[in-house]
Amino acid sequence: ALDRRGQLLCSTALLLEYEAVLMRADHVMAARLTATEMQDALRTLADISEPVEIERRLRPAARDPDDDMVVEAAVNGGAQALVTFEIRTFRTALANRPIEVMTPAEAWRKVK
Asked: How high is the mean pLDDT of the chain?
């Protein structure tokens, strides 16, 4: 995304969820970053993401309500693909949508 070989989509709710999760002390420590560095990473994520306004709610779309935010951002943002480690979850949630669900490794092979 930093090299502009793909466009990230992010709604306000999804960005706030990322912040809540990534700023947890155990996640900051696992990333081997300081809290300030994690905040900088989140700011960069916000800067390079295309903002998505949620005009159409799609709940419930997934078993986990937090995953619904991802589905809504993808659908409302007109995503071509959703990149995730949770393939089964999102393939089920997006089964009737023209959005390809792929792993990070699959996405990397496509943009190389």
From this structure: 93
